[in-house]
Amino acid sequence: MSSTSSEIHERSNFEELQGDLFIASPPTNSLAHCISADLKMERGIAVLFKSKFGGVSELQEQSKRVGEVAYLVRDGKYIFYLITKEEYFHKPTHEDFERAVSDLRRLCDELGVSGLSMPRIGAGLDKLDLDYVKSVVRNAFDGSNTKVTMFYL
């Protein structure tokens, strides 16, 4: 049985929406974005996450490596930090990005996350192809109970 891509997209638990991810997210949603293992968070949307949620020392204590996900809990919401590269000026490899997204899926399943909002992770300063990024996220969350919404301005 074959399906068209639009039919697959309609059944998917992944969607894209234009808007501000911090304003448009329902209060019960969790958030995710990419960072480096050095936890600098001095460029792009990472600056907003750092100023809004703080917790750099909490993230450091988790001792996560590239390909893993650290997280904070703020106001009953999980804030996920996908570690996709060693240092802020590096670019993630496809392997490291895919490992981090896979770990995000594992954590969402483990923690019972029903809604996850994120920017176009990896496709901004990290320069990963947006179609590739969306494909990785869709595939990772295929069959998941977590609805993923990717926001763009």
Break the fold down into its secondary structure elements and pairings.
Blueprint: H1 5-11, E1 14-18, H2 21-24, E2 30-36, H3 45-53, H4 56-61, E3 69-74, E4 77-85, H5 94-111, E5 115-118, H6 130-141, E6 147-152
Parallel strand pairs: 1-6, 2-4, 2-5, 5-6
Antiparallel strand pairs: 3-4
List keywords for this structure.
single chain; 153 residues; alpha/beta; Leucine Aminopeptidase, subunit E, domain 1; six-stranded mixed β-sheet; 37% helix; globular; disordered N terminus
State the share of residues found in helices, binned by percent: 25-40%
Radius of gyration using CA atoms only:
15 Å
Q: How is the quaternary structure best described?
A: single chain
Q: Largest beta sheet, briefly?
A: 6 strands, mixed
Poorly predicted tracts of residues: 1-10
Write down how many β-strands occur, each being a DSSP E stretch of 2 or more residues.
Answer: 6
Task: Determine the structural class based on helices, strands and strand pairing.
Answer: alpha/beta
What is the CATH homology-level superfamily?
Leucine Aminopeptidase, subunit E, domain 1
- From the spread of the alpha carbons, the general shape counts as globular
Query: CATH top level?
Result: Alpha Beta
Strand residues, percent:
15-25%
The secondary-structure element order is HEHEHHEEHEHE
Strand order, main sheet: write it out: 1-6-5-2-4-3
CATH architecture: 3-Layer(aba) Sandwich
Our measurement of the CA-to-CA distance between the termini, rounded to an integer number of angstroms, reads 37 Å
Total of helices: 6
Mean pLDDT: 90
How many domain units?
A: 1
Do you know the CATH topology? Leucine Aminopeptidase, subunit E, domain 1
